Each structure stands twice: as structure tokens, then as C-alpha cells.
């Protein structure tokens, strides 16, 4: 505050303490070129010297669906009702892909970019935003695949298409991505400090997958243990996502509010923690 | 009067030694909670005097004050671990100081390594854009300078090859080319010139020189290459164990730095003859290296003539005695062996003197050995490594910053005469 007393005007100031919220949206906007470049770099970089290249984006959910249909529907015999098992699983897997990939990539923000972070300054959240953007783009491609499959089933009259209902996918996508973003930011700080948390994180994601209605719907879960699934804030979004396509599923407003509120809190918490810790982590890494 | 662009007030940086944090999540959480929300530093409670256990912490920087004006070039010198890199990292916002503040004006870019943000799988072309953006260039800026960057790097033919297939030289050239075309108001450079061949180093230093002299940019430069610092920078600061020992014009600062750090063994003098180095034949009571310097605090550089004076006691009568003065490099190679004329001496003290002219030895570390012999072949005593000294580099109007080759650097005239084209045939 002493700076205001003098007439000198400075463009920037470096102080020992980090405020909880130091990066303004205006500053982030100045770095939009960098975000675009980082997305490009990650996208191009991950498909160099591969056989199928970007086709993996489509192949991965397709192969997963194939396995799920075989294991869960054919071997175990989980019934998907009137919906074809292929479509039922593809819907769940597409949204789950967005969540798990975003969460995992974001939680590696520090551990994978330490080389750059220790040599040059830019708001660290830029990297997180670019990871999120890339995952949303990849999700978009997978969503197109889903829409193709869906149109086929809708055209043949196997599933019921409703124009107004389909727009409900957007809140589901936003909330799911938001929870992944916030959680990823928190874990990026934690894994930077405690390296052994990363394998733990992989396990956490796998566990979370089973308490999430991906290859089953909440209605199939026995009533007395439904709370296990419902306590997962993602569950209602998966139900909503599936509802918007199929018109069936357990969509309850309180659960959606719980889920949305959870997202807002975790995004805020993640952003603040990430911002606060990013400078201090540089001394640790 | 140009305006201040950087003003550092009492910058200090403390590092904790050993395991960082307490090692347990629970205690870290407690510490973090108390220091972030309750606003009390735990260390201060444990030690009311504010002195934390000095074994567990190290002050990488202590109370650095610095004011830099627009267009100035500053060099930072100091031995390893003096805090140079820490200071640059604080200036470039990578780490936070423990206390103090830095205020500044204008865009700042830091070049702490070459190839920041390079992705080895991607092509040279892609990497120019990525690295440029990471270093803070705008898209239009890179597009505008793209051809210039490619030309500077000299990798035109490999622009669409992944950089992982580049030779290390090409990689560095491309990386530096991007960095050299940054146009911030303040440029921070750390030791990047340690890479690349001499030719390329010259090009880089030239580019940096242009940036400061023609475009009026402020440059802060850390290097172990004192020659480069003194040629490129008008001012310098000397950091020593985290504190600022001196700041001012680069020549003065570098001189003091060299004087304090170079190893010196310039004089031996013993009053008690029995303790003097030697044996029953010879005792050396005094030997000294006297550089011919205008100012006693100046540094010996390649231009300085050196005089060696010595006195020894000869214990034998009627002996044909000669001494040899041998000069060795720090690697142990003998550069010369200067003998005295063998002469008959009687018991008593003998004094000797020898002067090495300036502009003869190259820069480096050297030591003398004084050798005594009887009848020119029988060794009486050898006073090994009796004097040790360093010679600093000095170059005038030279753009060559690399180590000058050779142990000696005599300036024999090397003359070139143009003889025309047709004379070749004769």
C-alpha cells in the first residue's frame, strides 16, 4: 500500500505473498494464443509416430463399448431394457471419458510441466485451461460419434428422439467437466507435493467409475444401496445425460442441484488452491 | 535522465534444507492452516527472537537492493551458489521472494535455458511457434519474424523434421534463434551462451549487443564468462553467498571479484633461516611475485609484466651454483625453464630476479618452481610450486569470447599484404 503514496507508477510488482486470486480474466485473455498453441502441441504431440493417429479418439470409446457390451450385457447379463446395449454403454462411456481424462490430465499439470514452469513465467492456470480445452475438443469428436450412432437408432425407431430434451446434455457436460476441472486442479497441487498420490488417483478414478451409472442406471441399483451411487455428485449428471438421449432414467431436481452446487464449490476451491500454491510449489519441485 | 525500470527492495530468499515440509500430510496441513489463515508463521512462535535454526535453512539471497534504469545492461557475477540464478528466477516471477519486493515497468522476458517448451516430437516449424508463445511472443510477432528466425538458426532445410532428429547443435541454434528474436522491454538471460559453438556464441552475443545498444533494451545477464560480461554489460553486481558485495561499473566490479576469488600465493618470506624451506645446502628465505600494476588492487591480466624476486642462503663454499626458474600451467605442463649462468659462490645469501614481459602468457592459472643445482646437473633443492597466480583475460575490440587457445599469447606482428590477383601466377 505504500506504493500509492509515491507518485511513481509501476507496471508490475513482485511480492512475497500470493493473493488467493491473482490472475485476472483480462490477463488470461492476453494468453489466448498460448492456450491455442498448447492445445495444438498436446494434440499433435500425442499422435506422432502412431499407426492410427487421431483415429484413436474414436477407436478408444468404440473398443471400450465392445468390451462392456460383451462383459456386462452378454456374460453377466445386465439388462438395458428396450435400449440397445451398444447405445446405452456408448452414452455412459462418452461422458465418462470426458470426466476421467480431464481429471487425470489436469492432475498432472505440475508434475508434467515442471521443466517449463521452472524456466518461464506465465499464469500456471493457462496449462490447466489448455488441458481442459483439449479434452473438450476430444469429447466433442466422440460426441459426434455418439450422435451418429444415436441418429441411426433414432431413425430406425428403436429409441425415442425429442428435440427439446436433447439440449439437456449441455448442463450435464458443463457440470461433469467442471467437477473434473476443480478436482484435477486440487490433485495437481497434491500430486506435485506428494508424488505417490498419482497411482492412488488412478485407483480412485477406477473406483469412482463403479459408483457411477455408466453401464447401469440408478434404477437398476437395489433401493437400500442406492445412496452409495447417489452420494456421487456425478451420478445425477450421467442420468441426465442419458435421459436427454433416451428419455428414460432417474432425474431428480434436488440431486441435480446437489451436483451443480458441488461443482461450483470444487471449481472455486480448486482454482483458489491452485493459484495460491503454484508459486510455493516451485520451491518444492 | 532515463527512468527506472526495475527497483528491487531488500529481496531475500530462504530455502529450507533437508526434506521440504514436515513429510506428513497432517502436519503440513496444520502448518499451512496456521500460516495462511491465522497469519502466524510457525517458526516465529518457536523462536520468539525470530531466529530459526540455522542448520535447517539457508538464505540464498539476503537483502538485495538494486535499481536498474531503462536501456542499461547489467551483469551478475559470483561464484557457484552465490544466488545468481535465484535472483534471476525471482526477477522472472518463477519463484517468490521470502521478503522484499520488486517493482518494474514494461514487458519482461526471461531466457533461463534454451529450448524452453520445445516438444521433441514436433517439427521445427511447430516448435518456433510453441516456444515463441511460451516465451511471451504474440502470434503476429512470430509470424512477422518467422523468416528472420529461420535464417538466424540456419536450419531451413529441416524445418519440417521433428526436432528430436536434429543434431544437438541444430536444436540449440533453433532454440536460441527464437529467443533472440524476443523483443521485451527487459530481457533476463542466464548462462545460455554456455552452449553452442564459438561461432554461434559470437552471433548470440552480437544479437544481444544490438538489442541493448540499438534498440535500447534493458538486459540482465548472468554468466561465468567474465569477458562476455565486461564487454556486454555497462554495470555489474557481484553476489557472494547471497549478499551483494559490490555493484557499479562492470569493469570495477569484475576486478574486485577476480581479486577476491583467484587463488594467490605471491609471497614467501621467512625470518628464521632454520624454518625456511630447503635442506642442508640451500634455504630459500624469500620469494615474491611482483606484478607491475598501476593500481595495487587491479587484476593481473595478460598485459601485466611480472617480476620474480628471491633470496636464498647457500651453505657451501666454492660451489658452482645455478638456479632454474620453471613455469608450469595448472595442468602441470612446463612452459619454460629459465636458467641462471652457473657461477662459483661462497657461503652466504644470494639474491635473484627475473622479469616476464607483459603480453606473453595467455590467461589461466600458473605456478613457478625454483630449482637449484650444482655443476648444472646435480640437484641441490627444488622449491616446487612456490608461487601461484592467475592471469585474467583482456581483449580489446574483440568479438571473440571463447577461451583463447594456447599457453602463451605473444603479440608477434602477423602482417598481411594484399598482392593483387595476377601475382599468383608468377
TrEMBL record, chain A:
Subcellular location: Cell inner membrane; Cell membrane
Membrane topology: Multi-pass membrane protein
One MF annotation (Gene Ontology) recorded for this entry: ABC-type transporter activity
GO biological process: lipopolysaccharide transport
Matches recorded under PROSITE patterns: ABC_TM2
Gene Ontology cellular-component annotations: ATP-binding cassette (ABC) transporter complex
Protein name: Transport permease protein
UniProt source species: Algoriphagus chordae
Species classification: Bacteria, Pseudomonadati, Bacteroidota, Cytophagia, Cytophagales
Automatic annotation (TrEMBL), chain B:
Domain of life: Bacteria
Location of the ABC transporter domain: 43-266
Keywords: ATP-binding, Nucleotide-binding, Transport
PROSITE patterns, alphabetized: ABC_TRANSPORTER_2
GO cellular component, one term: membrane
Species, as recorded: Algoriphagus chordae
Organism ancestry: Bacteria, Pseudomonadati, Bacteroidota, Cytophagia, Cytophagales
InterPro entries the record matches: AAA+_ATPase (IPR003593), ABC_transporter-like_ATP-bd (IPR003439), ABC_transpr_TagH-like (IPR015860), Bact_Polysacc_Export_ATP-bd (IPR050683), P-loop_NTPase (IPR027417), Wzt_C (IPR029439)
Single GO term (MF): ATP binding
Pfam families named in the record: ABC_tran
Family as reported in the entry's similarity comment: Belongs to the ABC transporter superfamily.
Protein name stated in the entry: Lipopolysaccharide transport system ATP-binding protein
